[in-house]
Fold this sequence. Notes:
- The complex is a heterodimer of chains A (861) and B (150).
- Chain A has 6 domains: 2-184, Four Helix Bundle (Hemerythrin (Met), subunit A) (Up-down Bundle), CATH 1.20.120.160; 190-245; 248-428, 2-Layer Sandwich (Heat Shock Protein 90); 433-496 and 629-692, SH3 type barrels (Roll), CATH 2.30.30; 508-626, Up-down Bundle (Four Helix Bundle (Hemerythrin (Met), subunit A)); 715-847, CATH 2.40.50.180.
- Chain A is built from 31 helices and 30 strands.
- With 861 residues, chain A is of the alpha+beta class.
- The longest helix of chain A is centred in the C-terminal third of the chain and has 32 residues, at 595-626.
- In chain A, the strands form 6 sheets. In chain A, strands 10-14-15-13-12-11 form a 6-stranded mixed beta sheet. In chain A, strands 27-19-20-30-29-28 form a 6-stranded mixed beta sheet.
- In chain A, helix 1 (2-31) crosses helix 11 and helix 11 (255-266) packs parallel to helix 12 (283-304).
- With 150 residues, chain B is mainly β.
- Chain B has one domain (4-143): CATH 2.40.50.180.
- In chain B, the strands form 2 sheets. A 6-stranded mixed beta sheet of chain B has the order 8-1-2-11-10-9.
- In chain B, a hairpin with a 2-residue loop joins strand 1 (4-12) and strand 2 (15-20).
- Classes of the chains: A alpha+beta (861), B mainly beta (150).
- Chain A binds chain B through residues 198, 201-202, 205, 442, 444, 493-502, 657, 659-669, 672-674, 678-682, 692, and chain B through 32-41, 43, 45-48, 51-55, 57, 67, 83-84, 86, 139, 141, 145-149.
Amino acid sequence: xxxxxxxxxxxxxxxxxxxxxxxxxxxxxxxTPDSHELLGSIFRAIHTVKGTxxxxxxPRLESVAHVGENLLSLMRDNKxxxxxxxxxxxxxxxxxxxxxxxxxxxxxxxxxRDFSEVTARISALAKAGNEVPIVAVTNQEAETVVAECIGxxxxxxxxxxxxxSDANPSVKQPDNRATATAASNIRVDVGLLDKVMNLVGELVxxxxxxxxxxASQNDASFLSTAQRLNLIxxxxxxxxxxxxxxxxxxxxxxxxxLVRDLAVACGKQVxxxxxxxxxxxxxxxxxxxxxxLTHVVRNAIDHGIESPELRTAAGKPAEGRLLLRAFHEGxxxxxxxxxxxxxxxxxxxxxxxxxxxxxxxxxxxxMSQRELVDLxxxxxxxxxxxxxxxxxxxxxxxxxxxxxxxxxxxxxxSSVTGQGTTLKIKIPLTLAIIPALMVTSVGERFAIPxxxxxxxxxxxxxxxxxxxxEIQGAPVYRLRGNLLxxxxxxRELQTSCVxxxxxxxxxxxxxxxxxxAKSKHLDWKVKLKDLLRFKLSMTEEEAGSHxxxxxxxxxxxxxxxxxxxxxAVHELRETHVRFHQAVRDIVTAHNSGQVRTAEENMRAMEAxxxxxxxxxxxxxxxxxxxxxxxxxxxxxxxxxFGLVVDEINxxxxxxxxxxxxxxxxxxxxxxxxxxxDGRVALILDLMGIALSADVLSHKRDSARAQAGPSTAAAQAxxxxxxxxxxxxxxxxxxxxLSTVARLEEIKPExxxxxxxxxxxxxxxxxxxxxxxxxxxxxxxxxxRDTMQVIVYMQHGRSVGFVVDDILDVVEQSVAxxxxxxxxxVKGSAVIQQKVTNLIDLQQIVVAAGLNPSTRxxxxxx
Amino acid sequence: xxIQHQFCTFYLDRLFFGVEVHKVQEVLRYQETTQVPxxxxxxxxxxxxxxxxxxxxxxxxxxxxxxRSAEQLAMNIVLRCDDGAVSxxxxxxxxxxxxxxxxxxxxxxxxxxxxxxxxxxxxxxxDKLLLLLDMEKAVEITATGAKARA
Lengths: 861, 150
């Protein structure tokens, strides 16, 4: 009996898979009606279902499959061509078969179901397409046939006698295949897989610990065993990971059918495109996104894409396009569902929100476009006029959003009226082992998912001071000619709260104020002289020790940890101990009346104090030089930025563990992991950090949101960084930061004249200077001590633009509002809530009479 | 005969607290914690509980008591919660005591400070007072999450 159950279960799995495949193939076939391969695949699928269900004694299933097979065989013999009606009928048949399979799954038997409509439809189609009479086995007939067969013990024979010549299924063949698949596939409880996954996670940690231990060992056999353990663990980990990962295609592949059905139901033409179907996701996540995605697809077809007439009228192809795209980015899986439909009608959204009383009228008026779009997430919101059977019941986007957020994802809708709607879903890859780069900052280790890592840059010695430049307080580094905004991890993590305590105690010890240390040690001389002249009294306690002194603390603490390799630090430490010993000796001698000893010591101390000053200078130089800057260049949301950390450690495989609910509000971390030594390390959420550091601004996102998928490329130009400055009577101006090579301050004395042109010697060449105010015929600003110069570089030659003040660098998309025909001014736009002129540096170069053909050839005005 | 309850007891700044024994998963001595920058300051850090990452809540800070001195190592009481374990950091762990309901009294209204919100009752033991802590409430930190940067 149980063996029979087993066989039936396999049959169910196989049949369902077959039907799913058939769905896809049918939709595909509609596009390429001549494909014999597809037709053959469909035929085989239905044939298998029919044959196996006959063997297992499911007459209803068999009879339905039989009718379908008849129709398909006609098509295979080129007696019938595929029409949309046929496709619909066959798809409907698949649904009937599925329903029957579900019955079998739940009860173990077929249940009474009325499918005569579908079979009649198919038979009618078959008849219409072919004069050869095809006997449609109807429900009742099938039952009688089965009743006859039930007594028959010989299942080797085809239980249903059909007239279709090639529908003579060899029963053995599908059965054999079923067992073959069964032998290589087993079904495992997901809970068990979870457990195995957790254990592998533990094993990875234990392996890491062992590997750490091997560093201190030189037993050859132990080392090779550890090596093997390492390899096996890695493979095991990969294997287990794979068991849980499924391509998103498993969900998506159902969509072409869904899209087709919906499109037909709505009287629309829609072509679905799938991109990145092989993007792998954890099984639990796949399950969780299935329903929301289906919902979104429905929405897109029902609300988004217009009817063919409307589309043609709007100058768009009659066939709408629905693009589903999935890809990995920064430890997340991104899913985009874009249609080229009408977009979200904001006016209707407003009306709807009003009529449903979801938002008060005055508030509605103040809402930005983006906020209006977000209204669709409100429960009970729907813009469709009438409720269809597809959607419009007002349980839509809010459910989608809640479901996605439940698994830690985000949903973002952007829409352009008339061009379409794009929905972006971002899902984290929880429950995974990922390679990560370990870094240290503020004494703690952090993990950076390697997937977002671009490169590592280390600046040493004099380099670091020079090459990190600041634009209005925003540090940048020039990475191969491009400005890379920098984010200091320690500043980012310390800015708001954490333990004020550790900061107060720890902070001072780390950064030594060299000037203060010098002056303090010189002060001792004065104090002790006063002591010897009896102007001052001092006890030994007051004299203190080298450990209590700020310099001493620094030398014994942070300096040893950090600069232990610098000999000057050790020399200074020794001198410092001797110095304080001398101070104590003087005080002791003086207090016990040994004036001479005290004075002798005094001389020694003075010498030591000079030595300290000299050595301090040395240490200061050495430590500054060794203060290397480590930049981790990262990619987040298509933008690069540099994360400055104290130390870059190593790459490691880490097990991503979620943070507890108490820490959900902390956006800087994506999770935590356990390191080889058993300690917990936090995993940085680069998006969160980039956002909080304003490397990626929300403004930019919203700017992008206003563009549809078709204008995405054009958009890339819009969001850019602008350098704001003033020139001539405080006019605000902006140039794209990408055109700026460097910002310089130049002393007016260094300006020389070459012919008519103001020039300055700059980096071994002669750089012409252009006064922006003069070219734009504005009143010149008053003379200043230093001139602010924007250096513009083209074809290896620099031009300096003299401006009044450099204000800021902002990143936002700029809409040119008043196009200008003034030379050098592209127009004006609102940047930082102020009207700003957008300057075209190239035009100014030309206007200033610097011959563009020789000096700046190819630049083009 | 009054109903008897078992409490896991602990000390915080010389105060004697108790939490129902069935809510306690286990008791651990000092564990190395990893600080979570930007988190609300009642979060004492993260500890590694046999491969599981558990958030530790500093009860002293939660109850508005003075900070623990640097040399005093905090003990962990790991509590069972609906969504996994949460650890609370306490000064010292006491015995498990069994006390009857007849000794219970509502906390006097004169209790001051944050502690007042979390003390559900007072058991009058022979030699001292056992403060019954409302652990669910004490480990429920949501509003403070807003502190972690807008």
